[in-house]
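Narrative of activities, Objective 1.

The group set out to show that a structural description can be obtained from nothing but a protein's sequence at a throughput compatible with the screening campaign. Below is one input-output pair from the validation batch, recorded exactly as produced.
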Amino acid sequence: MPYPDAVIADYREAIEGKDPTYHYLAEVDQRPIGMLQHYRIADSPEYAEALALGEDAVGIDLFIGEADLVGRGHGPAMLRQFVRDVAFPFHGIGVCVIGPSVDNVAAIRAYEKAGFRPLKEVRVPGEAQPEFLMRLTSADLGSLQR
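Output recorded for this entry:
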């Protein structure tokens, strides 16, 4: 059954190529389980201003939508591989940030396991909760794989 327009409205501009956010299907054993996305922070000036990173960076997000696979340890490995093989090479940038809600303790722990380190808490206009901004560099990623 096709998704109604209201469900895909947030993704429409990216689907139509008007928003520079790149979406990927996340799979485990050929089973679709969620979505990964990457984007250059500087391509969203309001978001970049809120983050105030002081450096060029890639932003990523991971959504696991299958309840039986949430909290099973898939996220950290998927994030490391996605950043290494897709996001860093695509943008030619060796800094990546991810910003879970400050209240999302499970996501923060998963991102730490992937190698992300706490950076700072930021308020983003239009978001109810502050983001707990975390950072991973290509050098950090390389040291995790040794």
